[in-house]
Amino acid sequence: MNAVITGASKGIGKAIAEKLALEGFNIAICARNADTLAAAKKDIEQQNPAVTVLAEVVDMGDKAQVMAFAAKINATFPQVDILVNNAGIFIPGALHEEEEGLLEKLMAVNVYSAYHLTRALLPAMITHRKGHIFNMCSTASYGAYPNGGSYSITKYALLGFTKNLRKELLTHDIRVTAVSPGPTLTASWEGFEAPPDRLMPPEDIANVIWAAWTLAKQTVVEEITLRPMLGDI
User: Residue 99 gets which letter from DSSP?
Assistant: First the structure.
């Protein structure tokens, strides 16, 4: 079994990669930083030394790099069983105050990367009539909030992409799930002062994804929303 997780050098992506490796999946991961990616590869291999771990430095905002990553995946794995489109950038700010070009930058990383990578890996999934695509959306995909700015726009768009993909692929027996976590203990929240239990652990997101994958093939969880017990911050 083979899985692809983008943006997997830390946080939610790394937790998912470690969980799937522990369950016996060969893993393909990517990130922009070579050092954190190498460290993540080492940690994932420790979860299960028997699995293959393909780790590539990729800027997911660059279509050419995304397509090159897809080509390496297709050359390494005969098919992808789980695709987790997790790569994303979180930059808060009001629309009228954020820097020029931020929307385009966030759309490229948060939405276009998932679009291009999914399209590149779909042919083998369709041929084998098997696969599960998880798009990492956000609670921001469902409701506007102050200083959501371009980030919120991209998360609405990713949820729309996910819903459309679900409709298109259901007759091909390919499951599609939107996963929308609220505040999670990742690098995006560095410097935030709060009790340790105020943010969700990334391992919880990984466990929910695993649970959705293990359901019967005729069952799909279309949307998953997770929040801290005390609500959003």
Answer: P
- Nearest Cα to Cα of residue 5 among 26, 34, 36: 26
**Whole-model pTM?**
0.93
Q: What is the mean pLDDT of residues 162-183?
A: 95
Please report the domains of the chain, with CATH numbers, ordered by start residue: 2-226 (3.40.50.720)
H-assigned helices in 26-62:
34-47
Contact 18, 24 (CB under 8 A): no
**Per-residue pLDDT tens digits for 68-98:** 999 999 999 999 999 999 999 888 888 788 8
The residues that are catalytic are 151, 155
Distance, in Å, from the CA atom of 192 to the CA atom of 178, rounded to the nearest integer, reads 26
CA distance 217 to 58: 32
Residue 80 exposure: Cα atoms within 13 Å on the Cβ side: 29
User: In the structure encoding, which two tokens stand for residue 99, read together?
Assistant: 């820097």
The token duo for 72 is 């390496």
